[in-house]
Amino acid sequence: MHGRSLRAHLIAWLPLLALPVIAACGSARPTAPSPEAIETAESLSSTVSITAPVSSTPAKGDDEETRIVLSGRVFGSGPTGVILAHSRLADQTAWFPFATKLASTDLYTVLTFNFRGYEGSTGEKQFDRVDTDLTTAYEYMRDQLHMSKIFLVGASMGATASLAVATEQRVAAVVAISTLAQFPPLDALISAEHLDVPKLFVTSQDDVPQEKTQEQLWAAAPEPKDMKVYDGDAHGTDLFESPHADDLTATVIDFLAQN
Question: Does residue 181 register a pLDDT over 90?
């Protein structure tokens, strides 16, 4: 079962669950990197277009034939792949400063991308297809960038998608920051329960309800697993713009190096 098989069971509940999910993602726009940081990141990366190998709505029984093209950027040329998945209220630029630092180690090829409907990506925002888009990004990194070892790192919505996709694809490990317990039709707790690769769960102690989700994920997930809880209420990639930025960056890089 895992990520994609949850779709049939949960899709009927999507209208009822949509409001709690939106609330859980936060009501304010996340902190964006400075224009200078974005410009620097763009100068150090290359633009790529990631075409979905299937239709834009590939769930069984769908008839839509329009292909989705995701806008992405590739940082570095190291032997190991890392995919960074953004939150609902942000886009791939929120990952640019971290992607730049990670690529500067010369150990990783880093891929950021915008989910469908976000700037540069085609289609409309379809939040029940975030696992589809992340799987497409994974297949691009595996098949086009020729990465045999791939890490998934996600924030908020992207964290929930990362846990789901990791149950279906071969990944080295997962970093889940400010994970949403449910992002219909995905359920992070069910995904974590079936995920035996190394996992790092990160949150802020006053980021409600993600801090509670952190406890639930820790209880559900088998070993190997690690956890980091920071002071404050920073959510998702905002942690990389917080006073904890240096520690979080070092923590994630160390976790990747160890796995």
Answer: yes
- Cα separation, 179 vs 188, in Å, equals 8
pLDDT, tens digit, for every residue of 53-92? 655 555 555 555 678 899 999 999 999 999 999 999 999 9
Report the CATH number at residue 126.
Answer: 3.40.50.1820
User: How many domains is the chain partitioned into structurally?
Assistant: 1
Q: Can you give the residue range of the structural domain that contains 99?
A: 2-258
- Look up tokens 């953004």; give the residue: 86
Burial class (CB in 10 A: 0-12, 13-18, 19+), 93: buried
* Cα–Cα nearest to 112, from 87, 134, 85, 130: 85
Instruction: Collect all residues with Cβ–Cβ distance below 8 Å to 198 and sequence separation of at least 6.
Output: 172, 173, 174, 224, 225, 226, 255, 258, 259
Average pLDDT over the chain, rounded to an integer: 87
Cα dihedral angle (8, 10, 12, 13), rounded to 10 degrees?
A: -170
13 — pLDDT class (breaks 50, 70, 90): very low
Whether residue 196 contacts residue 222, with contact meaning beta carbons closer than 8 Å, is answered with: yes
